[in-house]
Amino acid sequence: MGEGGEAGAAGPLERGLEVLGTISRARAPMRPADLARATGLARSTVDRIIATLAAAGHLRVRERDVVLAPQAMEPGNAYLAGTGLCEELAAQAVALADELDESVSLAVPDRDGVRFVAQSPRRRTMSVAFRVGDLLPAERCAPGPLFAADWDEETRRGRRDRPDPGRFSIPPLPSDSFDGRITAAVADGYSVDDQLIEPGLIAVAVPLRDTAGTAVCAVSVVSHTSRHTAASLLEHAGPVLARRAAGMETALAAPAEPGYVPAVPPELGPDLLSSLGRGLSVLTALGTPGGLTLSEVAGRTGLPRATARRALLGLAHLGHVRADGRRFVLLPSVLDLGYRSLTALSFGDLARPHLAALVARVDDSASLAVLDGAEARYVARAPAGRLMRATIEVGTRLPARVTALGRVLLADLDPADARAEPDAAPLAAVRRDGHSLVDHELEDGLRSLAVPVRDRSGRAVAALGVSCPTGRETPDQTLARLLGPLEETAAAVEADLSVVTAFHDLPIV
């Protein structure tokens, strides 16, 4: 059956998300042949899926390797936006972590597992390494017994059978006293993890209940046996956790306002898998607190109702969408479609493909730098293939006031900041023009042009620049040749940064 039939419409969507999930679980870049072997799909099918996901912005093909692109976080962002949990509760989790000086996590139930949706870690030698999107077996963490008290018989049976235990971030326990922990959690109103996740890691969790009394989220305080025993952590954190949880439940009961709106994937060409593209559009459209009706999905995506219905049925079959009355809501399993893997990206990782594309376009070396005190520190670099080029490496620090990159960053500071005081005239020109061009100041014969890279708030968190010899052209010619490509590349970095940081902290280091 072709894509026009209902079963056919689900087929390409199911296969496409299987490929995306396989890449997400991989610990290294995969090639099309690897994906064909891992999924059992024909190579021609894999090639078409890759082309479709690349056109939608979810994958990049580098030479022969297929890797996730930051836009693959959009379905996960849609889920997090649709929960109505994250913004206010995450802020309260940060305040709780600051008050207790311990790591704090927010988690939601996901069938017979527990899925983390927010983390506020403490930066220590021994610290929690879980990422947003990680899925733990319910019996191996503190929130598990809190959620299991509400399980139906199907979920209990699913935990006993578990046909795919590999979906978890850590292995399930072959045998345990989970029923006793569920009973204790119901009686106590809290649950303790005494090194169930791994030796040395301890946690205490309390439920956050909706107005119907169902535990829809749990907040955990996590520590290490080098700091606490399970009993002393409960004594230290229990009263504060109970007080904070009451405020969190009040926030949970408040009507959620739509905040982040994920970008709808672009229209795909006729040679690509249109039903896969439509499924991705529906996934991101559902990022609304309370979900959407079929009519609302159709209106938001521009799809006919029958097409939107087929996509919703296919997504429900895959376990990514649930019907709640007339409304459809996303389920936390969509965090497996790239989100969890991409939270491991560094700022340099995010920017590097864009720098490489810029160098291929202009044939001059490109760099990304951040402000570190009064210095510009290079965090990513792509050298040009020339015999004569600037030999600057990642980690290099240079005085910000004599570099184009540094001046762009200094110009964005509050004028009251002492670092913005020297060379006020050049900084005023940068603020006016939106770029900085520096000739000969760092080194004779070297010219640099830089523009800002801004975060979601509009703050210049980094500067992107290109360096070239001065003898080839005049400053005006350099500006005319490079400014457009630089600004376009900065915009591409900003677009990726906006997606990655919607619900996830990405240190700009």
From TrEMBL:
Residues 71-254, 333-499 form the IclR-ED domain. The keyword ATP-binding does not apply. SUPFAM superfamilies: GAF domain-like, Winged helix' DNA-binding domain. It comes from the Bacteria. InterPro entries: GAF-like_dom_sf (IPR029016), HTH_CRP (IPR012318), HTH_MetabolicPath_Reg (IPR050707), Tscrpt_reg_IclR_C (IPR014757), Tscrpt_reg_IclR_N (IPR005471), WH-like_DNA-bd_sf (IPR036388), WH_DNA-bd_sf (IPR036390). The keyword Transcription applies. This is IclR family transcriptional regulator C-terminal domain-containing protein. It comes from Actinocorallia longicatena.
